[in-house]
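hey m, so remember when u said the tokens were messed up on ur end? i reran from scratch. heres the input so u can diff it against urs
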Amino acid sequence: MDSSPPERRLSLAQQLVLDLSRRILAGELPAGSKLPTEQALTQERGVSRTVVREAMSRLQAEGLVETRRGIGTFVVDTTGPGAFQVGRHDRDPAYDEVAFIELRMSLEVDAAAIAAQRASAEQLQTLRTALDEANALPRIAQDSIATDFRFHLLIVLCTGNSFFIDAMTHMSNTLKVGVTPPPELAEAHRQACRREREQIYTAISHRDPDGARAAMRLHLINCLQRVRVAQATTG
């Protein structure tokens, strides 16, 4: 029996869901592969069986895994008809990049404000680590895009709202290298992103919902502008 508070169990389960979802959607755990056993996950993650079971239930509800009695839990093929997919239509990639940021704006601005109210001390430390990793990357490429998006995913995780978390987890499946800015703009873009992420983190860590909302809105608006500038200069 897990004696930890329900909100603590939920946070741990959400973190496990987030990690496994990203690995599945990134192809690290391909369709048909078997997940580690419940016992293996409890030992590896240092969590209770209750936490692992809650996480598996969430992954099943999202249609990412299925449990076969007596055999184990397996990754489901999410590319079949009816699967939730974003940005996989035959559209101009430039359009997809702009549309993706527009979608994020509708979600992440309020998520940042909620995170400022609900983030635990442990979550803030995890967020700080992710921010440092994003800031340390030297260039704009696939690895930097994924690391930056992880910072945003962790902000959404701080909300404790499963709908926000599910939406952002599914969005991670659309990550790809977009239009790369020309060399004369790349460093300026990178430094601007660093400043904006720091402003978001500062507002969240200071428990300032209005400041977090404004900082996230400014960051995503600027991201949209930087994408359009890069498209214009490379088009």
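this time it looks ok to me. The first helix runs from residue 6 to 25. if urs says something different then somethings off w ur setup not the seq
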